[in-house]
Amino acid sequence: MNKKLRINWDDLRLFLEIARAGTLTAAAERLGLSQPTAGRRLRALERDIGAALFQRSAGGFRLTDEGEAMFAHVERMEEDSIALERKLLGGARGLEGVLRLSASDWFATRILATPLAGFATANPRMTIELLTDSRLLDLGRREADLVFRFVPLGGADIVQRRFVRIAYGAYAAASYIDRCGDPAASADGAGHRLITLDAALDQAADLAWLRGRWPRARLSFRSNNREAQGAACVHGGGIAVLPRVIGDGLPLVHLSGEAPPGRDVWIGYHQDLRRLQRLRTLVDHLTATVPREI
Questions:
Q1: Rounded to whole angstroms, what are the CA distances from 200 to 69, 78, 207, 269?
Q2: I need a surface site. Which of 24, 94, 183, 220 has the fewest CB within 10 A?
Q3: pLDDT tens across 106-147, in order?
Q4: How far apart, in Å, do the first and last CA atoms of the chain sit?
């Protein structure tokens, strides 16, 4: 009699994470496992299947031919499982459970934290998880239920709309102006220095404006963190474009006559969740409490 193979789905999830991360350590961390436990479960999975799924090397784990074949099937299983989870969640009723939100660090702190705290207080059976991450988390894979992004979200299965318009200003410290002169009086920025976003965000409209306004200025500091840019500006590091909700609260000179373009923030969620009551209620709360322009 042939023995029926029984594979635990959690072991298949571990297999997927190792294949994606390339290391056992990273996969274990993502799943909240210890490395010895992850290694033991992988060896048991390979023993049950009767094939090595990975080639081990100093550079990490690479799929074998058997692993490649298995990966395609298991990934489809994962997609079906997540789709079923979304469907079931989308039909849920009541204001209880967990909602996972994703936004950039400063937007989460300056714009979302206060109204979310009010929502959590009014709905004690709900838990809000706010992830401050610049990555475009996958709504289809439920890495997040609701995201806030400075670019429109892709995908026909995403429900999205403009949420708020953010105003920006150009700033410099008084100490910087004393040392280098008033940037507003400079035609091309010669002799000046700039504080900007990092290279990964080179296409941001405010960064393009900053470089266009002072093309001969030299780069002094880069960061993907707006609060860090503000701190560098306060300490005389150069000219920075900051959201006014940040810049106006710092001991900085708001450069008169300099008007960087505003930016729209988009809110989005997967269409399978459009009837989820707790999600709709949260979106309505944020829409009612956050001004359309900031």
A1: 34, 30, 12, 24
A2: 94
A3: 999 999 999 999 999 999 989 999 988 755 555 555 688 999
A4: 70
- What the block records as the tokens of 195 is 């504080």
Q: Which residue has the tokens 């706010």?
A: 130
Computed on alpha carbons and rounded to an integer, the radius of gyration of the chain in Å comes to 24
Assign domain 94-166+264-289 to a CATH class: alpha beta
Q: How far is the C-alpha of 83 from the C-alpha of 75, rounded, in Å?
A: 12
Instruction: Delimit the CATH 3.40.190.10 region(s) of the chain.
Output: 94-166+264-289, 168-261
Task: Note the pLDDT tens digit of each residue in 52-96.
Answer: 999 888 888 999 988 888 888 888 887 766 666 655 554 555 567
CATH topology of domain 168-261: D-Maltodextrin-Binding Protein; domain 2 (3.40.190)
| CATH class for the region spanning 9-89 | mainly alpha
**Per-residue confidence band for 2, with pLDDT thresholds at 50, 70 and 90:** very low
